[in-house]
Write a structure and sequence with these properties.
Largest sheet: 6 strands, parallel
CATH architecture of the largest domain: 3-Layer(aba) Sandwich
Structural class: alpha/beta
Number of helices: 14
Bound molecules: thiamine diphosphate, magnesium ion
Length: 449
Amino acid sequence: MHALRRGTTALTSRTARNALNGRRGLQSASTERFGHLPDSHSPITPKLKFFNSVTEDGGQIPTYRVLDGVGKPIEGAEMPEIDETLARKIYENMVLLPTLDTLLYNVQRQGKISFYMTAYGEEATIIGSAAALASDDEVLGQYRESGVLLWRGFGLDNIMSQCLGNEEDTSGKGKQMPVHFGSPAHHFLTISSPLATQIPQAAGVAFAINRSARRGKNCAAVYFGEGAASEGDFHAGMLFASTIPSPTLFIVRNNGFAISTPAAEQYHGDGIAARGPGYGVWTVRVDGNDVLAVLGAVREARKKCLEEGRGVLVEAMTYRVGHHSTSDDSFAYRSRSEVEDKKRIDNPITRFRLFMESQGWWSKAEEDALRARLKKDVMQAFKRAEGMQRPELQEMFTDVYGGEEPWNIKEQREELAGLLKKYANDWEPWKTELERFKGKGQEWLKKSD
Ligand SMILES: Cc1ncc(C[n+]2csc(CCOP(=O)(O)OP(=O)(O)O)c2C)c(N)n1
Ligand SMILES: [Mg+2]
């Protein structure tokens, strides 16, 4: 008896926390007559009842959608405000993204860059959300969000220079792997590959924004995959942004895979959205292949984020059509037919194009002209960047840390100096390699004498 009573207390206090977080779904009228726990809104109940859902009916969290699979507004759709100019900009960027991806994917296959990651299938999630943000909201990406930079006018030249690591690479002067973009001018923090590190960092950035003159004007938007949400850093970031005033917009791209691990093996609950209310964080799930729904959901989420000065979570349901990266062959763990089906059904670009056509905002002739122009622009930018040299060799060791050069960098620099002395003038592979650097390493070689 005593044990049962203790168990009952534990259960109700858990329920109390959930009620405080704004959930009313588990509360029935009959429980009201027993009053509430002290210092909480948790109603006392004589019934022992477990729960495992955040919805009132115990079902899955719904997915907000505006357009059907062929670009027609669904009945009762709450449409975001959009005019022709904005729609065209969104569509053009949605088409630019895969045009760029196709070229750089092939360039990697030719051995001209070391690595690449495409965003095939996720164009609506990325461009729709980018369009909903203010251009000076701080963005912390995972690695599949170069579309946000395209949207903000980073430009193809900068994209190419970073991927090729040439002398115009403003992201990292050739030090980073391809796709690790960064640009203070575009309020885009440099990508770092260790998963989920950007999530608590985003909460920190948002906290700083909240303490600055930008209070109430900007948020920090953080992108991550549903796989990254399995990291402890996701939970740390969510807890921080829900307890300490920090307008953080959490945008999770649920694209069905973390490399080869399907989403079904990554969580037992109702996706990532179900975790939001656990932190008292306003949450919405959206059809990530419906750009209008993403635009509407992220706009509202951003508004809420600024109004409340706390975290808001958006889960965009999409599908990773491409391989994880150029280091992956996804047909080892999923069928070609699954991918072909996903390309066809709810294709984000086709859906939006059909919507544009129905509004009289787009035509076949414009489509052909756009595709031809983008292909040409992308190829031109690549050719330009390909012809450039790498940054000076010494740049390899600069700007890694702020302040005085630490011992490990000094040690690495000295090691390279020794190797250059030994091989640079006599061994063909080293000679050829040095030719590719601005200044051919000569100045640096002299320095290290
Ligand atoms: C801490 C850490 N663990 C593992 C990896 C290797 N890794 C790189 S991407 C990835 C999958 C991430 O999946 P998800 O977050 O869903 O993003 P997606 O690639 O689907 O966009 C893994 C496991 C890593 N980079 N960092
Ligand atoms: Mg994923």
